[in-house]
From TrEMBL, chains A, B:
It comes from Pseudooceanicola atlanticus. The lineage of its organism: Bacteria, Pseudomonadati, Pseudomonadota, Alphaproteobacteria, Rhodobacterales. Pfam families: Fer2 (PF00111), RACo_C_ter (PF14574), RACo_linker (PF17650), Raco_middle (PF17651). PROSITE patterns: 2FE2S_FER_2 (PS51085). One of its GO terms (molecular function) is iron-sulfur cluster binding. Residues 8-112 form the 2Fe-2S ferredoxin-type domain. This is Drug:proton antiporter.
Length: 683, 683
């Protein structure tokens, strides 16, 4: 044996892993020896090109080596053939063919890494590292031998074990039905997709292709909401989103909100079956549409991950959700589930595809909240972080490295524009932003689908096609906050009269007043006003949200939070300043209030692309302290105090430093609680 | 602590396990401490009565103890209540209630043992010990708590872990859909059926009942033959067969024998789907019929085991069997399979039932042969044992403790009465036994469905309803052997003329002769003869069988076998003496030739009732040396030598000691090979 120090030194970047290898070792073998993440599907046969690397030449003082031109072996026939046929990028080599002869620095480009990091979409979601449950393996299978009879499947299993260290695989009968033909078509060289997750279940061969399969593998990350179902068709090798789409949850015909669907089931025995069939059918349709949109065969979709709230979770699984509608809000199951797609009637993708449903946190805090937690990672935060997923129910997480708490709070649908006099869903024509001049009390606004503000030239022309049809969730929040800043409502939420406010836009309406944002009645259009009832509905919703956050802060013993992350598609549209003026969220530095976008969807994608992420969230939910708002004695108290805008007692110093709220009071002794339909004891 | 020797001594019979326990220990707890197999479903709550024991009193010199009347505690309220309600057998106590106070001898009756031994049906099948994969557990589940939210399923899993040490259970969505209602109906006391087999898969909760479920659990042991499908509905607690039934394999309409079904698939692309649907439909029908016959709910059938030949194996699983019809006879899969019953469309039993398909040994030696091996256990035999499962294909096993070999041999359907001039299936009216007087050359016979021999008074009256319709497999074997013993055929198989044999029953038929057993033509009935062609067909079949056995003996280096076991429903009807005169089987002491009955069916039942049996056969098949007759050079040679009756060269000393075969020769220079359609090179 020669002195190992005489052996060539190989340094891989960007990992920085280095070591000496025997001269003549292939780059792929060297990477495996040194634990460098270098991909290969064909197992070193020079056909898949997944193991491409870029050698660097010259002096590297940083690494203390000089790389000569002959550091790697010359191109061999396999490499030459690959380059002729497919073309290798300038400077690239096939890691399984190029042999190390002298000291060398080798760069592994991202596309050659199995565990490549996928660029994160938002500063408030953690980066995602590819670690999918289902992977492709190219294998050469031994041919049958009458002297040593064994099944084709057993020889495939042996090949996977010997060539890839994938042990003890199993398969469904439908795979076995396909196996013999493909083995012979591929002349005993085949690519198989093997699903091996973190559950300890034996790896399962999902599909097989003759020769090297280059069509990729795909998965669906599904965010199953009460109102909309959104899905991202994702490349399981790169993490890239190939297509994204959404559709309305067809369960809406059984009830707009979750509790009305639960009621439907309670009133109609067996009704859960209809609801289950409706949502499963929608998932199957969506999957089909996405495959079409991306131009891929549905058979290449081999996995799906699903996040949803507890009621949708139960209805998807065919479980009667009645227990979730009443104390003690017992889930049938809270753990994560790994299921054949067929169990969910998701038959429009690969027939052997697997689905993964994220765990629920509690009876009111579902797999969607778990996904938000996975995406925003409060348990890894140094700062005390408040995460709010705003929807019909708000899911709230509070925590840092030491501990995370969670609750849900029944905000109701006001934040989505429902129960608002001129409210509508976020759709073209809806007012989504509002500004009120504090001097003139005149409003200006923007509508969805139009780039101009309403007071800008060209607005009328631009809005001709959409019209101004109503006000959506983010619009009503801005409107109420702007009214408070302009002195049109007082801290109790009471709208002043025309006299009190000095603007004719404050119109009397019975014993209360409303503020007119837009009057299109002359042109046969609607009149968009904010009524006293609208203010009360927003107050109820925001009080519930604030009270939930406050409850978690109490439990944690926190006076304030360092950072607030708003999640949910809606969260992305809320202006932090307006949310804080309204008192939806606790006081915090405005630059510390950010949006994580559709964090639940991001969490679903992370679980789709990474079994490590699945393991993380399964462990994570167990460590979260669950707070049940319905039985927390202080919830009512917090709720009542949060009814004022922004708050009856909390000082909001950070907000005060940037916004000066006028001190007004319009209570003239009448019933100030107006449209407030819930009677509450004042604390 | 008191001196342990002062503690009461408890001796359990029949196990003989003994030890000292703290005074006041319940019998059930003592049994668990001492590793005594004492059943309990309710976990010691005094409601299931599975832990009944019988204390014995008086002096036991054998055990060295004297048992006093107060050895056990007095009846408590729970025992009294049970006795009042259900009645305890005289002398019995509930093991979970009776406490040990002084030295005692306790008998555990068979019905209180989990691993009770089931009485074996035949001397040639091994005894069966109950060790089913699916068992019942009574559990008390914690109620939901809003302060510690968790799913009902997680609390059930915790109860199973804490109360029964059954860990990490999983369940299907359809179970989860049922869970909440049953938990509440049972007031948080439920019985669950948990399937935990030997595969290392996580235990699976299959079903749940409120309170204590006393309806039992059942399984189906299915013997899926090419011609008939037989199933035994078996009690999974006792091993008792509750109902047995069979039906014709509906695939017969696609081809009588396996190769014609394989041809059908080869000629009709997609034809395997029709064959698969046909056989699956039959299994579902059979399961339904058996549940009805036994008067149980089909939901209580939670398992099925299936044994079958390789072609049926593939067709059941939906796999194109074409590869099995041509060299190298590659199985798609040879391993055992554990599948949801739904994967086999077996939807007439519990929707979450599991099926287990025994492993195949090789492309020609299927799961049916594996089941025969399990039932007859040649690998545990001190003597060299030859096991022959006679059917359209004969499966042959040869071995002892040191080594087991297996092959299959293409006997063709002659042994089943097919390709025989007067042949028919074994059904009423078929001649099943034949005797020929060696002096008068006159035959007498018995037909199925009639108790009299044909020469006895009352035969005509008794046979009036059945008639004499033909000759079945066992009948033709006896007839040919009797003809040889009576000197009507010579060792080459040639039938003598009336002149040569001295009986007018030998009628000329072209250039050959036939022997008339029964002539019913006067009454419009059939004439049942054994033609030269019939003899040739039987010779071909028996030569194949003998040659297969001989091949295994060659491989083993054995001159003779110690013991022969005939398996298969047909095996049960073959007389050992006639089989040996014919030279179907090698020479052996006649009293060492026995029948194991339907050993394949017995093997299926063993696998149904015992996971240990499954483990045993899975390990076992790997150790069996497979011999492929199609490529064995000496097979042809053995086949030709075995054409003579009993054999051209083998001496058959054991047979000679009990039967004196006449030395005759009817070859007059004509073509002695007559109907032998295969031309073979003489060795």
């Amino acid at each position: 044996m020669s002195d190992p120090n005489d052996q060539p030194l190989v340094i891989f970047t960007p990992s920085g892993k280095r070591g000496r290898v025997a001269p003549g070792t292939t780059v792929l073998a060297a990477a495996r020896q040194l634990g460098v993440d270098l991909d290969s599907v064909c197992g070193g046969r020079g056909i898949c090109s997944k193991c491409q690397i870029t050698p660097s030449y010259g002096q590297f003082s940083k690494h203390g080596v000089t790389v000569h031109e002959d550091a790697l072996s010359e191109w061999n026939k396999v490499e030459q053939r690959y380059d002729d046929k497919r073309g290798l990028k300038q400077g690239r080599r096939l890691g399984c063919q190029a042999c190390i002869q002298r000291d060398v620095v080798l760069d592994v480009p991202p596309e050659s890494q199995v565990h490549r990091q996928v660029i994160r979409k938002s500063a408030d979601t953690r980066p995602m590292v590819m670690d999918p449950a289902t992977r492709l393996y190219f294998v050469e299978v031994a041919e049958p031998d009458m002297h040593e009879p064994s099944g084709d499947f057993e020889r495939l299993a042996t090949a996977l074990k010997e060539q890839w260290k994938v042990e003890a695989v199993t398969a469904d009968p439908s795979f076995l039905a396909k196996l013999q033909g493909v083995l012979r078509k591929g002349d005993w060289q085949v690519t198989v997709a093997v699903h091996a997750d973190h559950t300890g279940a034996t790896p399962r061969v999902l599909d097989i292709w003759p020769g090297l399969h280059e069509g990729g593998l795909f998965g669906l990350a599904i965010d199953l909401g009460s109102t909309t179902i959104a899905a991202h068709l994702t490349d399981l090798e790169t993490g890239e989103v190939k297509a994204a789409s959404g559709l309305m949850n067809p369960q809406i015909r059984f009830g707009e909100d979750l509790m009305s669907r639960v009621s439907y089931v309670m009133m109609n025995p067996g009704g859960e079956k209809e609801l289950t069939a409706a949502v499963r059918g929608a998932l199957a349709d969506l999957a089909k549409a996405l495959a079409k949109e991306a131009g891929i065969s549905p058979d290449l979709i081999v996995e799906a991950t699903i996040v949803c709230n507890p009621v949708m979770h139960h209805l998807l699984l065919g479980i009667d959700p009645t227990e979730l509608g009443q104390a003690p809000f017992a889930l049938a199951l809270s753990e994560a589930l790994s299921l054949p797609a067929g169990d969910l009637d998701l038959t429009t993708i690969n027939t052997r595809a697997r689905t993964y449903i994220l765990p629920c946190i509690a009876g009111h805090v579902g797999a969607d909240a778990a996904a938000v937690s996975l995406a925003t990672a409060p348990e890894m935060s140094d700062e005390l972080m408040l995460v709010i997923d705003v929807g019909t129910n708000a899911e709230i997480l509070l925590g840092d490295k030491s501990r995370v708490l969670a609750c849900s709070s029944p905000t109701g649908p006001a934040f989505e524009g429902a129960q608002i006099s001129s409210g509508q869903r976020a759709a073209p024509g809806a007012i989504e932003r509002v500004e009120i001049n504090p001097e003139t009390k005149e409003p200006r606004f923007r509508v969805i689908g139009v780039d101009h503000w309403s007071d800008e030239d060209g607005f009328a022309a631009a809005a001709a096609s959409t019209g101004v049809t109503g006000i959506c969730g983010s619009g009503i929040i801005e409107a109420v906050a702007e009214m408070r800043m302009a002195g049109l409502i007082d801290p109790s939420g009471l709208i002043g009269s025309a006299e009190q406010t000095g603007t004719a836009r404050c119109e009397a309406e019975g014993r209360t007043h409303s503020y007119v944002i837009y009057d299109g009645t002359d042109e046969g259009g609607p009149k968009v006003s904010v009524t006293q009832g609208d203010i009360r509905a927003i107050q109820l919703a925001k009080s519930a949200l604030y009270a939930g956050a406050q409850l978690l802060m109490d439990e944690r013993g926190a006076e304030k939070v360092d950072r607030i992350v708003l999640a949910g598609a809606f969260g992305a549209h809320i202006s932090p300043k307006h949310a804080m003026v309204l008192g939806m969220i606790p006081d915090a530095p405005l630059d510390k209030v950010t949006s994580a976008g559709n964090a639940a969807g991001t969490g679903a994608r992370m679980a789709l692309c990474s079994v490590a992420a699945r393991r993380q969230i399964e462990t994570g939910v167990g460590k979260i302290t669950k707070i049940e708002t319905a039985i927390a004695p202080r919830f009512q108290e917090h709720f009542v105090a949060a009814n004022a805008i922004p708050h009856a007692t909390a000082p909001f110093p950070e907000l005060s430093s940037v916004v000066n709220l006028p001190t007004v009071s319009f209570n003239t002794g009448g019933d100030g609680s107006g449209g407030n339909r819930r009677r509450r004891r004042r604390g």
